[in-house]
Please model this.
Amino acid sequence: MRGLLYSNGKLQYRSDLPKPVPQSGESLIRVLKAGICRTDLEITRGYMDFSGVPGHEFVGVVEQSPNPAMVGSRVVGEINCGCNACAICKGGLQTHCADRTVLGIKGRDGAFAEYLAMPEANLHGVPDGMADEEAVFVEPVSAAYRIVEQVVVRGASVLVLGDGKLGLLIAQTLDIMGAGVTLCGRHRNKLAILDGTTINAVLEGELKKGKQYDVVVDATGVPAGAAKGMALTRPRGSLILKTTTAEKREIDLNLAVINEISVVGSRCGSFVHGMAIMETGKLKVRNMIDSEFPIEEGLRAFEAAGKPGAMKILLSF
Ligand SMILES: [Zn+2]
Ligand SMILES: [Zn+2]
Model:
């Protein structure tokens, strides 16, 4: 099959990849569209020591499944696949199973190929009214919604650092959920995506001097974001960390002690919630798409996704 393969530090387009063989409990999915996210770029810089087919944001059609009712359905999939045997999995925390595989990130081939296999239990049907271009955003929107599951956002003053794709989705999601949101970024054109919302979108330097926020979210994608966020969090406020980088980070934790700041790591959220937010129709995702490339031009797509200021790049099959 056609797809992208990352191995020995190199990303290549291949037309001879083996079609995945679904294991017990798994479905085989034909990928329709997939989104390139910052994590994929980090993977090609060595993050997670991954090798295989990257890609975890996708929408596809089920071709084979242990649940015959699923065959032919358009689906998205939760990317963490627990072992289902350990105490953590039995407690319902598959996303934190030590032996988990993660689609296109850890121990499991991902969505930048014609087919992928994943547990049937991870799949969610996509409503008919939701276009493929929108459905690929369910994964990052669910990750944005994870914050709502972790801290009280309704009525809180929230500062989101970073106007990348995730930052824009987080700002919109928390706004919909009743927070007073400021988003601080570096690109006028990206801030403009939030025009017409109640989000206060500002450039660095336009932030109110000395103001601190109940909740600060680091979605900068750069190592320095966490320390910057810490300084902007009010005493007893919460600093949410969304950035992952291949590079290790240093941060002075004295401020966390002195100001009694809760530092909260935040990763994947429930697709049920992500889908529900998408279905409100209030989230602007289509204008975050820069361009779409056929899988044969996957390397060019990665190049485009890596350009400074790039927005969402989609692959189609
Ligand atoms: Zn992602
Ligand atoms: Zn487990």
